[in-house]
Amino acid sequence: MKRIRQLSRNATLDYINVGFEDDFDSDYDTGDLVEQAYTLAQEYFNVLSNKEPYEVALDNGEVVGASFVTEYGDFEFDVVVHPSHRRKGIAKELIRNAVQEFDFRSEADPEIVMQVDVVNPDMVNYMNSLGFVIKEQTKDHVIMEFEE
Fold it and tell me: Which one of 46, 52, 65, 89 has the minimum C-beta count within 10 Å?
């Protein structure tokens, strides 16, 4: 699935779903996007042990943000955005789309739990506004869980 969002008059980002869909339709090489997403995550956010790329945000064909989700079991997700592209709404868009994926999955399994590992302190308040509460906190990470 490809969505385009205009950031400003001169900047447009493409949001491309790269995970869990057989009908992927894009002008981009999926393998390359996944590789770029992992590279971005390893450079700026290293907690993706059990997660797969779900969606990427592209600026002129370069991955500048990505979301990663667990494919099975409880729904965990992480979002990473390149520092030069932060504070532009990219993380919020990626989070919104990950939450929609959770909503889809929870229809099939109402018992699954949604968690996110937050490393950016600025995002804790935003995640809280979406209904996430802090479940665990360390020096570098905050584990938040969705509660209705």
Answer: 46
> Measured on CA atoms in the order 42, 5, 120, 133, is the torsion positive or negative?
negative
CATH of the domain at 19: 3.40.630
**pLDDT score recorded for residue 32:** 85
User: Is 74 a member of any domain?
Assistant: yes
- Domain of 95, in residue numbers: 2-112
Residue 71: alpha-carbon gap to chain centroid: 13
Residue 10 included in any domain? yes
Tell me how many degrees the CA angle 119-121-127 measures, rounded to the nearest 5.
85
pLDDT class of 82 with cuts at 50, 70, 90: very high
Taking CA atoms, 53 is separated from 22, 29, 78, 79, 122, in Å, by 14, 14, 9, 10, 23
Q: Which residue has the higher pLDDT, 45 or 134?
A: 134
Q: How many CB atoms lie within 10 A of CB 137?
A: 12
Is residue 134, in this structure, part of any structural domain at all? Answer: no
